[in-house]
Amino acid sequence: CIHPxxxxxxxxxxxxxxxxxxxxxxxxxxxxxxxxxxxxxNLRGCTQLQFRRDIPGSKKIYPFYIQACAKADTVEVxxxxxxxxxxxxxxxxxHDRPWRGVHYLALGGLNHQPIDYFLAHHPAVxxxxxxxxxxxxxxxxxxxxxxxxxxxxxxxxxxxxxVGKDYNEY
Length: 170
Description:
5-stranded mixed beta sheet, 4-stranded antiparallel beta sheet
């Protein structure tokens, strides 16, 4: 249920593509460095078979993210790429502001390093919206991240999904 505009943008930017691994179709979510060079990727199964794997040699510090169209001052931070794409989709359905008016950052788990890397390359960002899962690990991580980002003088908003475990379920 990802909005076609989000899918088209991600494909056009080369941060999402489909491949096959052992005859199973997979989505590949690409992480890039500050110069736009692919440095990692996550494989996720596209069928009933639950398949998750990082591409060998991937570095988690380089996150999957959907870049805003201008020097946006806000980043929404999610645990997984599909949740970031779901957040972008929800913004389009809400029509409360342009969907590319914020950055959508996916950590690929509960890891603070991609946030630090992203912020170092996006100094215009002054607000972080934490969109972590509504489970115990997500809620605990939100508290930890909020404290660290507040210490860096960012405005932090904790915004778990209104319904369900994560933004993709929501």
